[in-house]
Amino acid sequence: MDRVLRLSSQKAVVIFSVSSCCMCHTVKRLFMELGVDAAVHELDQDPKGRDMERALAKMLDRTPTVPAVFIGGNLVGSTDKVMSLHLGGKLVPLLRDAGALWL
Amino acid sequence: MPSFASSAGVQNNSTEGNTTNPSRESCFGLLKQSIAVHNDLEATTKQSGQQPLASVGVTASASKVESLGQQPHLLFLSSQFENWGDSTMADASPRTDTSTDLDIDEKNQMLEQGQLAVTGASDSSDRSKDKRLDQKTLRRLAQNREAARKSRLRKKAYVQQLESSRLKLTQLEQELQRARQQGIFISGSADQSHAVGGNGALAFDVEYARWLEEHNRQVNELRAAVNAHASENDLRSIVDGVLSHYEEIFRLKGIAAKADVFHILSGMWKTPAERCFLWLGGFRSSELLKLLANQLEPLTEQQLMGICNLQQSSQQAEDALSQGMEALQQSLAETLAGSLGPSGSSGNVANYMGQMAMAMGKLGTLENFLRQADNLRQQTLQQMHRILTTRQSARALLAIHDYLSRLRALSSLWLARPRE
After folding, report:
1. Which residue intervals define the domain Glutaredoxin in the entry (chain A) (predicted)?
2. pLDDT score for B114
3. Interchain CB distance below 8 Å, A26 and B324
4. Nearest-CA neighbor of B85 among B116, B113, B51?
5. Nearest chain A Cα to B368, which residue?
6. What is the ipTM of this complex?
7. Domains along the sequence of chain A with CATH
8. Mean of the pLDDT values across residues B84-102?
9. CA–CA dist B218, B224 (Å, integer)
10. B341-369, pLDDT tens digit by residue?
11. Residue A76 at interface with chain B, using a CB cutoff of 8 Å
């Protein structure tokens, strides 16, 4: 849990992912398209990955736990939450506030 | 007395003894009459060896019955007549050979009569010559009988084929009817999502058809209200109704996807032209928004920007999802390819099983993608409604409906187009 919290505030946008997960790929692509340089942590490639996944599961209260997106150190949610925010025009302001975008 | 030959083995007075099918009596009664006409013609022209009349007879009978409204069935049969000729007959004109059993029997009778006459008159003349005549005639008789026999057998086989096909058709129709009723029954209790999910594709198709019908009705109501310049409140309630009805189909799709994700993704429940533009199991939000941009003037500066941003956001989301799908495909391909290789060792079998299991897991994420895509569509509609005024939303919904129903109409036209 500590590791999750620590990592999640290291950069403006942090994505917890699994390398084989295609929905994670989707979210990564979306941020890339928006011009955001997100920090990606692949849980399956991290020695403490399982613990982190458990921590995320508690925070998110859903399966699958990935992708899990943090913006400005705060948990935003998973794919559908990110999509909703973006369609509502709220994602970009959020990114700007967190310093992930400069335009 | 000439024996009646008929199609489909109804009344046959020959030694074959085919049973009569009462349901076809009336139809074949007419055919019998026409064949009688045919054979009269045959008999009178037999000596002169005129062949074309055989075909004339058949088509004459066909056209006679045609005018009595039996057309499709009998035209088909008369064309079948033309194909039953036995080409091994000595005097092989195909037309002559299409003559019915009756004709062959008659021919044989006349040959026999002719032969008797010849034999009668030949007592006083050359014996060897008679013998040759006899042999020739006998051979001819035998050939005719053989041809007739084969023709009868073919007819019988064909009739049996027809009968069994007909039976199969009725069975299939019944099954379809039953399945439809079942589907309708279950979708009636739509609150129990489990019940609906169990029937998958067919049930969903039924539900979609019903949904579409209701949708069209609502849109007509909306159109009437817009044209009548209805009040803000009235219009809003109808618009809200249309939007929540849209939510209903997304809900149904979600349930159906749990049962059969491939059916939803395939778009087989939509018309062909719609299917052509299918994106992840439904319409592409960004395309609809592009369409609306022209339809919705005048828009305020803020509204225009809102719609443009919405279009851009949905485009980006769509692209991201498309990329995700491609990654899935790639990953699946790699997994399946990985299980290829030299077969034989037990290690490879375990490998194969493991990789199949992995592939199965990947397929499981398809449902997730579909859900995200539908979520996108739903959100787009809601955001659009938020940005626009009630009247503008109404016109937007009308425009979307008109566009999609034109696409559906295009499918129908395309399917019905005349082909060379």
Report:
1. 13-76
2. 60
3. yes
4. B51
5. A23
6. 0.93
7. 2-98 (3.40.30.10)
8. 45
9. 10
10. 665 556 677 788 888 888 888 888 999 99
11. no
